[in-house]
Design a protein that fits this description.
The complex is a heterodimer of chains A (about 700) and B (about 130).
Chain A (H helix, E strand, L loop, with lengths): L2 E5 L3 H13 L3 E4 L3 H10 L4 E5 L7 H11 L6 E5 L15 E3 L5 H46 L4 H16 L3 E9 L2 E8 L5 H19 L12 E8 L14 E8 L4 E9 L5 H67 L8 H31 L8 E3 L1 H18 L3 E5 L7 E3 L1 H18 L5 E10 L21 E9 L24 H4 L5 H11 L3 E7 L3 E10 L2 H18 L3 E7 L3 H13 L3 E3 L10 E4 L2 E9 L3 H17 L8 E7 L8 H11 L2 E4 L8
Parallel strand pairs in A: 1-2, 1-3, 3-4, 4-5, 7-8, 12-14
Antiparallel strand pairs in A: 6-7, 6-10, 9-10, 11-13, 14-15, 15-17, 16-17, 18-21, 18-22, 19-21, 20-21, 22-23
Helix pairs in contact in A: 4-5, 4-7, 5-7, 7-8, 8-12, 9-10, 10-12, 13-15, 14-15
Chain B lengths: L1 H4 L2 E5 L3 H13 L3 E5 L2 H11 L3 E5 L7 H9 L9 E5 L4 H10 L3 E4 L4 H13 L2
Parallel strand pairs in B: 1-2, 1-3, 3-4, 4-5
Helix pairs in contact in B: 4-5
Classes of the chains: A alpha/beta (about 700), B alpha/beta (about 130).
Chain lengths: ~700, ~130
């Protein structure tokens, strides 16, 4: 029914108007008191208001303002009737229509009708608008929720994000989520505004399980339900009131949380108001969206656990090898020494056959000790326990040195070793004793497998990372490849027996000697190449082999050419990796003034919920102290895992990128401290760090004058 | 009389076979050798005979090699005695501890007797 409010104090006018409107089939209400009018509008808003400008009891201009302000949201239209010669339109500018002459009935009717039409359109528009706003809001929530969902791999967080999104978009009273973890391992999460009565909670459990059984097509008897060990997590917003079974009478939405292949759980939400079609869509979307990341999260968890187990096994294996190798060394030493004494004739003259067999024993002891050394080296480098002493060094000198040690052996077979080294060679960041080991392994192989009068060529070159043929590398090596960087390539080429195509990559596998190869005859351990590979990898380089049977074999390895910053970051990364591997705490001592770094690093670490210990030395400035005119800032990070350290590394990396080296602190000492809690004060702690002195990273170009 | 001119080397290791071979070869090289088979015995003997050089094993009953090294190196009376440490471990961390405790030389098992004699000669003939 359409209501029209008349505000006319002239009785005659009022009667005429009322009758016209009534004849048109609309309701009319007449009022002249301002208060009554306002009350009526607020209780039962009219579709149209007709005001006579001549009404004496009311200041029309003021009144119009009042209702327009007070009932801003309501779209009612006001028509004002003005005298014939009216000019003061400014005063009634708030009215939507103006009629000069209401005696023209047709005009009046038309005005009323068109006003009402406009009113109708406005109303439906505003309704659409509201729906649109709600939809937009829901969309926004859905969007936010889905982007948040994509950002985590934590199962609990995923569920929280989903519930948060649902609560924002649907404002439910109560929701329960049943999450299926593993066989018969179920978690029920109840989010509710008010606490639940006991029987209600029980009922929810039952309802969740029933739905679960239905979805799973389980036919087990319900009495077994008690045996389900359901973990229940409750989040209650307000402590007062209590929900009981009647909540089940409210409108509810239900959805399984599942991908097409896998089922993870279900969710049901309740609320007093009915859910609209949009709500349903929103609900389904969010429930659907959570399933995929949940699947990833569960997979991730499984992989993580499997990885941990693997790591443990790997550790056990390498510990075993290293212990056994150590234990073998003592008796081996005693045998070797005894043989040496006898062979040297120090215990008296040996018969020639006695000498022959003693010599045989000695050779085999040496072989055995070679194998043990190789085994130990391999297990150490694989476990990340091998210590490297990286320095900027000229590798050509090392190559020449190793080449010279093989001269004699080569001469025996009349093999020529030719050096073709780059004269203008860059200094590389290497551990030259390990490089020596790599070269020894490669050159000794070359000498072994090259026939009489053969030729070995050792060559070096600078190559771009992008020019390295990835297909020659082992899969796992590719991650070391910095395509933008330069590399120093060392190749050892012989014209020996070559390696069969099928076997070519097996040469780097441990214990997988190529059958029928000369390895056995020539007394190799078969571990030389795997060790060389591991050592090259430890230098962030890589090794590969090219060969043609009966023509040549060419082993090449590349080492990165690094600038100071790269060296710094590489060191950092190695240190961190080492710390993660050994599950140690990390101590960072920053010497000098790391204000910037401190800002970007230390506080962010705190944000990430890492444990950060700053020991007090001075009451106010509790994270630095001075000693020998040096300022030490220190940060101890406890229980940091790989992700945390990666995070810190990134921080430092960006910090270095964004600052001049001079503004960076002079020196950073990284140290793995096992028990920082044992230290009473900072100097004690520092001593411990200094004593361990595991990593000191200095930045070149530092400002020593400070 | 001749014995008193010979330089004294103290070998401390709980592995009797290792001690025997070392003793044999060093005596052959013209040194006078004293032997001890655990840390405590070794430390006492060192203080008693004031050797010119010591060869110590790391892992020994009672007092380990590092501790002996530290005790002697921090004592003005004995700190000049060169100490050679025998270890089955070649881990650099060990060497770090060794440096801190004043070890002069490292011998990693299995070692060459000639190498040991060479090193000993370096320390004792230079004087």
């Amino acid at each position: 029914m359409i209501n029209i409010l008349l505000i006319v104090d002239n009785k005659e006018k009022r009667n005429v108007l009322s009758q016209i409107i009534l004849k048109m089939g609309y309701n009319v209400t007449c009022f002249v008191s301002e208060n009554e009018i306002l009350k009526l509008i607020s209780l039962n808003p009219p579709n149209l208001i007709i005001v006579d400008y001549d009404t004496k009891s009311i200041d029309i201009s003021l009144f119009l303002k009042k209702i327009k302000v007070q009932f801003k949201g309501d779209n009612f239209l006001i028509t004002t009737i003005v005298p014939k010669d009216f000019k003061n339109y400014e005063e009634i500018k708030l009215s939507d229509f103006v009629i000069n002459d209401f005696k023209d009935i047709n005009l009046l009717k038309q005005t009323i009708n068109s006003s009402l039409k406009i009113k109708n359109t406005l109303d439906s528009l505003s309704k659409n608008n509201q729906e649109l706003a709600l939809n937009l809001y829901q969309l926004d929530v859905m969007y936010n929720t889905s982007s948040k969902l994509a950002g985590t791999l934590d199962k609990t967080k995923l569920i929280d994000i989903m519930l948060d999104g649902l609560e924002k978009s649907l404002s439910f009273q109560l929701s329960f989520t049943l999450i299926y973890n593993a066989q018969d391992d179920l978690t029920l999460i109840i989010n509710s505004l008010h606490p639940l009565s006991k029987r209600f909670e029980q009922a929810i459990k039952l309802r969740a399980l029933l739905s679960y059984n239905n979805l799973f097509d389980k036919k087990e008897a319900l009495c077994e339900l008690d045996s389900y060990n359901i973990k229940t997590i409750k989040h209650v917003k307000h402590p007062f009131n209590e929900y009981d079974l009647n909540v089940f009478n409210n409108d509810s939405l239900f959805a399984p949380i599942a991908t097409e292949e896998k089922f993870f759980g279900l969710i049901e939400v309740f609320r007093e108001e009915e859910f609209s079609q949009e709500d349903v869509t929103c609900f389904q979307t969010i429930a659907k969206q959570v399933a995929l990341p949940l699947e990833s999260a569960i997979l991730y968890e499984e992989i993580k656990n499997a990885n941990i187990r693997l790591e443990q096994l790997e550790r056990l294996k390498s510990d075993f090898i290293s212990i056994v190798s150590h234990e073998l060394r003592t008796p081996l030493t005693a045998i070797k020494n005894s043989l040496e004494i006898v062979l040297n004739g120090k215990t008296g003259e040996l018969s020639s056959s006695g000498y022959k067999f003693m010599d045989m024993a000695k050779r085999n002891v040496e072989r055995l000790s070679g194998i043990i050394n190789d085994l130990l080296d391999l297990s150490k480098v694989e476990a990340g326990k091998m210590e490297f002493r990286f320095k900027k060094e000229n590798i050509n000198a090392t190559i020449e040195f190793v080449k010279n040690t093989f001269e004699n052996l080569a001469k025996e077979k009349n093999i020529k070793i030719k050096l073709n080294l780059l004269n203008d060679n860059p200094k590389l960041y290497i551990d030259s004793s390990r490089i020596e080991q790599i070269l020894t392994n490669l050159i000794s192989n070359a000498v072994k497998f090259t026939g009489e009068n053969g030729k070995i060529e050792i060559e070096t070159k600078i190559i771009e990372g992008e020019n390295i043929n990835e297909s020659l590398l082992y899969d796992q090596d590719i991650k070391f490849l910095n395509k933008k960087g330069q590399y120093y390539k060392i190749s050892i080429k012989d014209d020996g027996i070559g390696i069969d195509k099928d076997d070519i990559n097996k040469v780097f596998d441990k214990f997988r000697q190529i059958e029928n190869s000369l390895n056995r005859k020539t007394g190799g351990t078969g571990l030389g190449l795997p060790i060389a590979k591991q050592l090259v990898n430890a230098h962030n380089g890589f090794i590969w082999v090219e060969s043609k049977v009966n023509e040549y074999t060419k082993f090449s390895f590349c080492l990165p050419i690094l600038n100071d910053r790269e060296i710094f970051l590489l060191n950092l990364k190695r240190r961190f990796d080492n710390i993660v591997q050994n599950k140690q705490s990390l101590g960072i001592v920053l010497i000098s003034e790391p204000i910037e770094l401190e800002k970007s690093l230390i506080f962010d670490i705190k944000d990430k919920n890492l444990m950060l210990i700053r020991q007090k030395t001075h009451e106010e400035n509790n994270f630095y102290f001075e000693d020998n005119k040096m300022k030490y800032y220190y940060t101890l990070i406890n229980n940091a895992d790989k992700f945390a350290l990666d995070f810190i590394l990134k921080k430092i990396e960006t910090h270095i990128k964004n600052t001049e080296l001079n503004n960076f602190c002079d020196k950073i000492i990284f140290s793995s401290v096992l028990y920082p809690n044992e230290c009473d004060n900072i100097s004690d702690l520092l001593n411990k760090i200094m004593y361990k002195n595991v990593g000191e990273i200095e930045i070149e170009g530092k400002n020593n004058g400070k | 009389m001749e014995n008193e001119l010979k330089k004294k080397i103290l070998i401390v290791d709980d592995e009797i076979d290792i001690v025997e071979t070392l003793k044999f070869i060093l005596e052959d090289a013209g040194y006078q050798c004293y032997c001890a088979f655990d840390g405590e015995e070794g430390l006492n003997l060192a203080r008693e005979i004031m050797p010119d050089l010591m060869i110590l094993d790391v892992m020994m009953p009672k007092i380990n090699g590092y501790k002996i090294s530290r005790l002697l190196k921090y004592d003005n009376k004995y700190k000049k005695i060169p100490i050679m440490m025998i270890t089955a471990r070649s881990q650099d961390e060990d060497k770090l501890i060794g440096e801190e405790t004043g070890v002069n030389e490292y011998i990693t098992k299995p070692f060459e007797l000639d190498f040991v004699v060479g090193k000993v000669n370096e320390y004792l003939k230079a004087e």
